[in-house]
Design brief:
Elements: E1 2-6, H1 13-23, E2 31-35, H2 41-47, E3 54-57, H3 74-79, E4 84-87, H4 90-95, H5 102-115, E5 119-124, H6 128-132, H7 136-147, E6 155-158, H8 172-185, E7 190-194, H9 202-206, E8 213-216, H10 223-230
Parallel strand pairs: 1-2, 1-8, 2-3, 3-4, 4-5, 5-6, 6-7, 7-8
Helix pairs in contact: 7-8
Bound molecules: 2-phosphoglycolic acid.
């Protein structure tokens, strides 16, 4: 299983340290990836040096350098010890909802991340409105076709937007159905589930066919909860 923690815009260095210290000795069989905000990355890279836990970022630009004020490039992420990068999280897609070109930008980010030696975690998923209109598969297909690369290593995270931070999760059957659908579009790719994964439901979700791991938000900020998820 791959257990990726998306810390979003949370924690200062002082707050992150005890959390990292309490999990960094992890010796289990799962692949654990912590994705903090940019400002925490160098400090955490140092803390995780001798650990089996990997470091990920939450976004990157599509160029490796240049006049892009306020952006961070894949090359710069690699430089501080990052190995993974979340791309296309719904919270970032929603900031760009009025940009019809956004899927193309995501595709450029994904290629650029791969070229810099990072593994992108590509997030896809339907909104509540799209789900109610029975458009889930159509949306997922569109997101995959528009952004997933033909070559290079990457991970897909299926995150129904309505399940993120809401405490709601799809049924077992729904998760299995969508993961099976995605695996037909991108055979051989690891597909994570994300959206209200916690220490109570992680075992059940991990047992669903086609689920290769999780992208965890809220529950990854609390050591006791995240430890249980890491050991799923
Ligand atoms: P959540 O977030 O676990 O808090 O629902 C998941 C995510 O946004 O990646």
């Amino acid at each position: 299983m791959i257990i990726a923690a998306n810390w979003k815009m949370n924690l200062t260095i002082r707050e992150a340290k005890p959390l990292v210290n309490s999990i960094k000795k992890y010796k289990g069989r799962n692949k654990v990836i912590l994705c903090p905000t940019f400002t925490l990355l160098p400090e955490m890279a140092g803390m995780l040096k001798k650990s089996r836990i990997s470091l990920g970022a939450q976004n990157c630009h599509f160029e490796q350098k240049g006049a892009f004020t306020g952006e961070v490039s894949p090359l710069q992420l690699k430089d501080v010890g990052v190995s993974y990068v979340i791309i296309g999280h719904s919270e970032r897609r929603s900031c760009n909802a009025f940009n019809p070109d956004y899927n193309r930008i995501l595709s450029k980010k994904i290629h650029s991340a791969i070229n810099a030696g990072l593994i992108p975690i590509i997030c896809i998923g339907e909104t509540d409105e799209q789900r109610k209109k029975a458009q889930t598969k159509k949306i997922i297909k569109k997101q995959i076709e528009a952004s997933v690369p033909k070559k290079g290593k990457y991970i897909v995270a299926y995150e129904p937007v309505w399940a993120i931070g809401s405490g709601k999760t799809p049924t077992r059957e729904q998760i299995e159905d969508i993961h099976e659908y995605i695996s037909k579009l991108v055979p051989g790719t690891k597909i994570l589930y994300g959206g209200s994964v916690n220490e109570k439901n992680c075992k059940e979700i991990a047992s669903i066919s086609g689920v290769s791991g999780f992208l965890v938000g809220g529950a990854s900020l609390e050591a006791n909860k995240f430890k249980k998820i890491m050991h799923v």
